[in-house]
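Possible regression after last week's pipeline update?

I re-ran a chain I had predicted before the update to compare outputs. Posting the input and the new output here so someone can diff against the archived version. Not blocking, just want to make sure nothing changed silently.
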Amino acid sequence: MMKDTIDIEKVYDTHSRRLYNISFRITGNGADAEEIMHDSLLQYWKFRNKEQIRDLPKWLTSICIRKSIDRLRERSRWNDFLEDYEDPAMEEAPEEDGEYTVAVILKALCGLPDHYRAIVSLHLFEGFDYQEIAQLTGSKESTVRSLFMRGRKLLAEAIKHIRI
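New output (post-update):
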């Protein structure tokens, strides 16, 4: 019993922060990201055939991404107001030197509509190619490319207008 506790703590310490960051970039919500991170780790701990998992970080990342995308789908079914939402903090105030802080980029990313934020995050930050994203989201590869191009353009515009 003691060995299981040590293993659980080790897996949590090793992977929790990365899973949280992945989910946060996709969902744009800290509470959702934390819940998804915990759900992903719980799914691993409940998995009976752990020896079948060849690459634990990749397995956990896949579970986390799927759960994050499912959360976006769930949210979009219930909350159509996100498309019309306009953040009052988004004012004309570009950085003077053309360089942006992580906080500015993250705030701009969180302001994107869910479907753009998920695609941009998976491609830019997680390094997934269009085909992998299409498989994860159940979309066509051409749709993923279009969403990425539009999302990247929206992200660039949002970054120009954010003031921290």
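Follow-up from reviewer: compared with the archived run. The radius of gyration is 17 Å. Marking as no regression found.
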